[in-house]
Amino acid sequence: MNEFSHLIQFFFSGLTTGSVYALMAVSLVIVYKVSLLICFAQGEFFVIGALTMVTLTSKGLPMPAAFVLSIILSTAVGALVERVLIRRIRDMSVGNLIVMTIAISLALRGLALLIWGKESAVSPPFTPGKPIHVLGATLQPQVLWIIGVTILVLFLIWFFFEKTKAGIAMRACAENRLGASLMGISTQKVALFAWAWGSGIGALAGMVVAPLLFIQYGSGVMPMVKGFIAMSIGGLESIAGAVITGFLLGLVESYTIGLISSQFSDTIVFTILLFVLVFKPSGLFGASRSREV
Amino acid sequence: MKEAHLLLLMITRIQERRSTMKKIRVALFLFAGVFLMVSLGGISGAQTKAPYKMGVVLPLTGYLSWLGEYMKKGADLKAELLNKAGGVNGRPLELIEYDDQSSPETATRLAQRLISRDEVIALQGTGTAVISGAVSSVANKSKIPAIIQSGYALSEKETFTFNNAHRTDFAISRPMMYFQKRGITQVALLMPIGPLGELGSGVARKYAPTYNITIVGEEKFDVKAPDVTAQLAKLRTLNPQAIMAFTTGEPAALLARNMAQMAMNIPLVVSHGNATPGFLRLVAQTPGTVIVPSGKIMAPEFLAENDPTKKVIMEFAREYQTKYGEPANYYSGQQADAVSLTAEGLRVTRSDDPVKLRDAIENIKNFPGCNGVYNMSPTDHQGTRMEDMILLTIRDGKWAFLE
């Protein structure tokens, strides 16, 4: 093994970790973009998506069918949560709303515990096959799936927000709720839609990442925290920023582990977060919003 | 009209009185019945003497809940078997079980409650060094014997605590003994960040020279990390013949998976906390050699005929399979031992005095249990030896006996 091959291994390790963070950050940004709300229950959708898919495939359902069904199910749960809980307190302060999402997160975690029990699930990779060897380093094929899915999701989001009426309505809503409603846009529908989208993507993240990890009812916390950090560094509203910082965080962590010490990886990540928050509070990719007073 | 009304009133009054009389009569009848039963009970009370109450603190919910479940099953079954055989000194054992929610604060509160309110004669439980340490400290303050099961290192001041888990030292030196036999001398450490990793690292470095092993390098990892290949790549450059990782559950399984991914075909030793059906499921499909130090109960069929623990283990394993429909494991066996050790102490001392009970447990010698043969003494409150541990590995998705 030469020096070069383990530098590549660090890169692959970073890609693997980063892909988890990136997808999670995207799902957080979607909800935030439309409802200006950081949803702390996103980690639970990650778990629900992954575990539903594992259950369905273990019941003999083919992978693609299980995939689609799990997304539909998680999206429905997300929409239900918005309709039943969030909408009622929509006009309260952001603090109340965030506390509400934390409550939802705990409730969903409890629900997952009831349904799936305490033990971790093993999920088969989407395509069976040996790890890919590149110059002495190895990468799991599943990581390519994750990157592929991330690109697809990015494209779909871009298409949706830029090219469709509903997407433009959602952006308008985020910009100015009152204005949007005066223009005849149903803000309620938009919020419902954003939650459904966000939870669907959260679940998708869980489903594609599951084969790399061992998912159990409490597994949503780590991706949620790291996804949130990626989102904050990237600028709360930038989807591309969330993806780039997600992968960057993964790479920073793995190179820190590889070249400095495994004990410093979290320290360095948080230091970066602090610096960004102090010197560029809008995030690396966030447009600094100037509002007229 | 008025008379009619009065009449009606009188009739209802009488009926009311009648019904009250009836009620009184029924009540009297019941009272007599209860009294009769109580007095009868008093006559046959020779068989139903007051039970020995044991307090059991278990992590039934929270992050250790998987462990608490096995512990509860083991303790329940052992108590049931002992009671079926006539109890201890003709008195039944009663387990009072509480859920510590995997939290040391709750465990402290429950241990206090067991002692002051439930008036138990001894305590046992629970998971991890921190939580069982909390139980130990309550027990010592109240001078009530406690048998804990964890990696908690007992201090000399804790004279009322026993720890019937295998020592951490054994769990690390046992695989090293195996390495020495196989000519493995170059070992790398991959430890979780945190106290458990520090402990594992310290013990491994302490015993390595004894077994002629060189620690070629050490890396740390975050137990929540989704990938550990970076650390493994670093260790690979040092050409180790085996990797030791003192970690349990998902992170241990992730290490095995990442090693397989990188085609590192060297043995991976994980902690003795992994001998569970849950862990087996996690690594069943992973190629490579995972070594788990454990107790003999995990491979009863491989025990030598003359093994003193064979009879106890075989019987417990059989009853466990019948009762719960799953094989007994390390943790259920360990908890069953805590019940039997307390029962043995009670049998010898025949007294409800906690100090005498402590002394009796302290003097238990050659007592076969699921975890090995216990030889307690005032200086050894753990009782088992390194030879009481076995090494397991995984073949064809099942636990297999390695040594």
List the helices and strands and how they pair.
The complex is a heterodimer of chains A (293) and B (403).
Chain A: H1 3-35, H2 42-58, H3 63-86, H4 94-116, E1 132-134, E2 137-139, H5 141-163, H6 165-175, H7 177-182, H8 187-209, H9 221-234, H10 239-260, H11 265-279
Antiparallel strand pairs in A: 1-2
Chain B: H1 2-44, E1 52-58, H2 65-84, E2 93-99, H3 104-116, E3 122-124, H4 129-142, E4 146-148, E5 161-163, H5 168-182, E6 186-192, H6 195-207, E7 214-221, H7 229-236, E8 242-244, H8 250-261, E9 268-269, H9 277-283, E10 290-295, H10 310-324, H11 330-349, H12 354-362, E11 367-369, E12 372-374, E13 389-395, E14 398-401
Parallel strand pairs in B: 1-2, 1-3, 3-4, 4-5, 6-7, 6-8, 8-9, 9-10
Antiparallel strand pairs in B: 10-13, 11-12, 13-14
Helix pairs in contact in B: 2-10, 2-11, 3-4, 5-6, 11-12
Description:
The complex is a heterodimer of chains A (293) and B (403). Chain A is mostly helical and 293 residues long. Chain A has one domain (13-126, 134-279): Orthogonal Bundle (ABC transporter involved in vitamin B12 uptake, BtuC). Chain A is built from eleven helices and two strands; from the N terminus they run ααααββααααααα. Chain A has a two-stranded antiparallel sheet with strand order 1-2. In chain A, strand 1 (132-134) and strand 2 (137-139) form a beta hairpin. Chain A is globular and about 60 Å long. The relative contact order of chain A is 0.21. The model of chain A has no long low-confidence stretch (mean pLDDT 84). With 403 residues, chain B is α/β, with parallel strands linked by helices. Chain B has two domains: 52-166 and 309-385, 3-Layer(aba) Sandwich (Rossmann fold); 169-296 and 390-401, Response regulator (Rossmann fold), CATH 3.40.50.2300. Chain B is built from twelve helices and 14 strands. Chain B has helices at 2-44, 65-84, 104-116, 129-142, 168-182, 195-207, 229-236, 250-261, 277-283, 310-324, 330-349, 354-362; strands at residues 52-58, 93-99, 122-124, 146-148, 161-163, 186-192, 214-221, 242-244, 268-269, 290-295, 367-369, 372-374, 389-395, 398-401. Chain B has a seven-stranded mixed beta sheet, sandwiched between helices. In chain B, strands 2-1-3-4-5 form a five-stranded parallel beta sheet, with helices on both faces. The longest helix of chain B has 43 residues, at 2-44. Chain B is elongated, with a radius of gyration of 28 Å. At the A-B interface, helix 1 and helix 10 of A face helix 2, strand 7, helix 7, helix 8 and helix 9 of B.
